[in-house]
């Protein structure tokens, strides 16, 4: 058997007790053992290490040799590591430590980093891994169990999930400030449908919402679409006059505030949907997942852009 596997915590604690109390008899009292039992622990430790650890003096006192002091330092390191391990286990059991993978649809990247920062400040020993993708990618991640919690719009039909609303999610149609439709208070449907729409890729939740809205107000009238892969590119395209776009209001707060973009006006706009926090129904809710879930739920959407 390797030497380190033969060494026990009891042997190391017996050595520390002798060092702190000066004799085997005093050490035995502290440990609640008999002096012969402590002596046996120490002799076994010395035998395992092949060196003398305790020097016995004529006065009856005992002290550590240089080798004994080296082993005592190792014992202190082991004791500290065990204390740290126990605290980490307590934190894990209490949901105050661990790792949680949070999936967020692309639009959520405008608020998710600040949410994760809040979580880090509140629970510094919890690591929240953020995964951002479009709606199809986020649903696929749920199906593949590569994320544990998700923030998205309309919950998917598959996989089966448990979902709760955490805040309003308004969608608006944006245009450059000098666009002709920006001057109208109630834009006719046919005027809107004559415009070119800048849209996200297939699989995007915003793209799905836009398609349903235009099909509804136009009764199937065809319209022009230019597809772009990100909200930032869409905003730049609209500001350049390439077209108009339906987009999450949470992605254009700064542009609207600064006047670089405007919202077009119709009685049925904005379209207000909900943000949902969800997880698979069959997910095993560990304490740390519950801590993160409960924290996000309790925020009641305060982290969403205003």
TrEMBL record:
Name the family: Belongs to the LysR transcriptional regulatory family.
Q: Which InterPro entries match?
A: LysR_HTH_N, LysR_subst-bd, WH-like_DNA-bd_sf, WH_DNA-bd_sf
**Per UniProt, which keywords does this protein have?**
DNA-binding, Transcription, Transcription regulation
Q: Does the keyword DNA-binding apply?
A: yes
Gene3D superfamilies attached here? Periplasmic binding protein-like II, Winged helix-like DNA-binding domain superfamily/Winged helix DNA-binding domain
Highest taxon listed in the record's lineage:
Bacteria
Q: Which GO terms describe its molecular function?
A: DNA-binding transcription factor activity; transcription cis-regulatory region binding
Pfam family of the protein (one): HTH_1
What name does the UniProt record give this protein? HTH-type transcriptional regulator CbbR
- Lineage, opening ranks: Bacteria, Pseudomonadati, Pseudomonadota, Alphaproteobacteria, Rhodobacterales
The residue ranges of the HTH lysR-type domain are 7-65
